[in-house]
Every structure is written in structure tokens, then in C-alpha cells.
Amino acid sequence: MAAADRSTADSPLLGAVPALLLVSEVLRAPLGDILSRLSEVLDAVVPHPAAAELATDCAFAPFRTAGREEVAARITSAELAPLFASVPAGRPWQGTAAVGGTERPVLAVLSDVTPRKALLVLVRDDATALPEETTGAVQALWDLVTAHRKRFSAEAAPGPLARSRAMAGERARVIAELGDAHTAALTGLLSVLRARDLDDAVARERAIDLAVTALAEQRAAAARDSAAAEEPAGEAFDQLAATLRPLLGHGPVQLELAPPEPGQRDRALAAGVAHAARAVVRATVLAVLEQDPVHRVHVSWRVSPTELRATVRDDGPGDLTSAALAARRVGERLDALDGRLDVDAVPGWGTTVTATIPLAPPPVALPDPLGPLGEREVEVLALLARGHRNRAIARELHISESTVKFHVANILAKLGVTTRGEAAARFHAAA
Description:
By secondary structure, the protein is α+β, with helices and mostly antiparallel strands. The chain has helices at 3-10, 16-28, 34-42, 69-72, 77-86, 132-154, 158-194, 200-227, 233-248, 271-289, 322-326, 330-335, 375-385, 390-397, 401-415, 420-430, and strands at 50-55, 63-67, 93-99, 102-111, 118-123, 230-232, 254-258, 268-270, 296-303, 307-314, 340-346, 350-358. Helices cover 52% and strands 18% of the residues. The longest helix is centred in the middle third of the chain and has 37 residues, at 158-194. The protein is flat and about 75 Å long. It holds the Pfam family GerE. This is Helix-turn-helix transcriptional regulator. Keywords: DNA-binding, Transcription, Transcription regulation.
């Protein structure tokens, strides 16, 4: 038997029955452990010290690594981005790439099972080219893993789905606010550098002050917002004013500030509300400044026992649209707090943008009706709720039918119901 034939026959991945068993082990692993298990399986045919994946469809953890800590810990998502963009879907690529801070031989496979695709990179020590049957098997297994995760995303149980969405929303919020902060800092710097009434030395000094202030504010923001559960409305507005004055202080646009009235300044705002209100106003002001001409911007806060109303009014051409504000995620930030956005644009007279955030206590969160169930029990209940019988559930989850019966009995007991139909109704109500 030729060497290549012996390798194929002896391979635990390419042998038909052992391969199916290994695939089953990978797919049965918890979602967070799938990459580690996949790396262990593939190491038998493609020895590698580390593996990494970039799956942009996954909101919970789009970038993961596995393998030896000294290699895996140094890999970054930025290093995988060029491979994600250049490797053809379904056609494994072998070569050298900058991974983990140095040039290394890699095997990269891209799956297009999901709309936004998923990349797997095996970081190798050996640059010897792998045979097509091996790379093809790696591609097939990665496609299966990607399809498996896609199904879990489509049929996610309420708890994991809520956590995934919350993390995705938080990531989007942080990215948007960092973008606004950087835009505000750069706009302030440009206004100083363009000011004709400042000589070079003074302009340079003020530009340095602006940059230092922006850096200090960015570093302090996280600590400030996490340290306090509440902020007085007056102090919250003062922090907003401190970020707006450098933005407009050296340009042709006049800034007018109307803080909360004396009787409203001590009103306690939840830190999240104060933070969102500042972000919304700053994003709106940046959108206002994109109009031409604008000579005056008026910013005010009014606080009542039930709501915070933040208003931005300008004397521009009156063509500011909701779409321009949506591009800066203003609406998304308000939606998270059940807020409302009103845009009143009058051609030739200017625009008034009002953001209203309710201050009434949020409704008490009800306990998760599926909370008593374990992860496997939720999986069984999800299939039961779709009308699957015990045999089909056993086949789907790769467990015995008696194990399914055991889980169903536990589910009925924990939910306090007596029939499968009642349990399915509980699942659908929770979802």
C-alpha cells in the first residue's frame, strides 16, 4: 500500500465510521467548547499548536481561539481579517500569514453556510503542503460545525438568545459612542486649527489641550459610569457641556446651553439614563453641524418626575432628517430606554430635535419560566415544543430514547405541569 493510501486508511478523520463518531463528539460539545474540541480532532491529521475562528454572524463571541496558550493568546481578530476577506469559500488555502505577531504557516478554510460566512484558521509548525483529501475533509467538517451553530442561532432558547442579543447591543452601543467621542474630538481640533483669529502658537497650545482633555475624558468615562448608580441631573448636564464647549468653542457656530432649572438640578438620574442622554445630544449636535449654514445651536435639558427631555435646536436650513440621526444610532440608544425621538424641521428656519427618556421605575422583571431547567433539558423541551416525539428527539440530540424519557419527566416536574402539551405551551410563552 502506498504511503498516501496508508495515511488515508489510518486517519481517524477520514475513516468513515471513526470520522462520524468524531464529528458527533464535536457537535455535541457545548457551543463555547466546540472550537477546542474541533482543534483536538483535527490535530490528528493537521498538527497545529493553535486554532482560531472568525464568525461574524455570531453576536455572542465572533472571535475565538484554542490551543497552546503561548500561541493562541497572541492571535487577534485583526490578523484574521485579511484571510477572511481573501480566502475563497469552500476552497481551503495553505500558505504563510501574520498570525500571533509573527509569520506562520496556516491552513485557512472559509464556510459560506451562514450569510456572513465563518473562517477557521489552523496555525501550523510545519509548512509542508497538505493533500487535497485532508484539506477537503477539514472544509467539510468546518461546514458542518458552521451549519450546527447556525441552527442553534435560529432556534436559540430564550435565555442564551437574550444574552446574545444583549451582548450584541452593548457592543454596538460602545462602538457608536466611541465613534462619536472620536468625531467630537477631531471636530474640536479642526475648529481650532481653522480659526483665523489664533496665531500658530496659541492654536497649537489649544489643540494640545483639547487632545489631552479628550483622552482624559475617554479614560475616565468607564470608571465614572460604573462607579455611580445615579447622577444628579445638574452634574450630568455639566459633563455634557464640558464635551460640547471644545467642539464649538473655536468655530463660527455659537453654542447656547440651558441646564436643568434650579429645582431640577438635584433630581437623581440613573447612570444609564444620564449616559444615554449625553450620547444622544452629542450625536445630534454632530449631525446638526453637518448642515450648512448653521450659526447657532441651543441645547437644553428639562427634568420632570416622569421624564428627561433633551432638546437640540439650530438655525440651519431645516433639512435635518431622521435618517441622518439614525445613522448615528440616536434612535437605537433611545429604544433601549423606551425613549422617543421627535424631529421638527422647518425649511429656512431650522430644526428642533427632542429626545424624551422616561424616568418612571422600570417594570419588575418576572422570573424566567424556564429558569429551573438545565441546558440539556431546554434543548429537549425546544424539540418537544416543535412536536417531535421521543425517538426523533433522541436522534436529533444523539442520546438514547430512555434518556429522553428521563429528561421529559424532569421537565414536567420542574415546570409543575402534567402533560407534554402544557410544557410546550410554557416554552412558547417564554420564547
